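A brief tutorial aside. Many learners find it easier to grasp structure tokens once they have seen a single protein encoded end to end. The record that follows does exactly this for 4-hydroxy-3-methylbut-2-enyl diphosphate reductase. Read the sequence first, then the structure, and try to relate runs of similar tokens to stretches of the chain.
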Amino acid sequence: MQILLANPRGFCAGVDRAISIVENALAIYGAPIYVRHEVVHNRYVVDSLRERGAIFIEQISEVPDGAILIFSAHGVSQAVRNEAKSRDLTVFDATCPLVTKVHMEVARASRRGEESILIGHAGHPEVEGTMGQYSNPEGGMYLVESPDDVWKLTVKN
């Protein structure tokens, strides 16, 4: 069997955009720049940004007042967005536009009271961000991680 690798290979446009946002923030504002979650799943890139002054955090509470915060390409929940707004932070949103599109669809379903099903892995930043767009107690947002989850799923509409 012959395996061919396409060249050049690289990141998707959303990840390229997120990396550029962090690099530009470091160039314009200097270190430190706080980034919620690692901006991309790539150790080389993350280590390089860390060496230049990016500080990767998990909780907004880790960011000092008045600091610069960047949301990673994976996006964040509305609760995280609201927490960042309530603090004296300068926020740059590096969420991938395609992820933002999914967030908007989930928020729209929430407003309509429609149920939404997301296939993904609990705890992954993109899943947390997407699940966090749904706020309607009359509807429902369900995470499916396995075929067993599908069999256990009960939806209203």
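Self-check: Residues 13-95 form a domain with the Rossmann fold fold (CATH 3.40.50.11270). If you spotted this yourself, you are ready for the next section.
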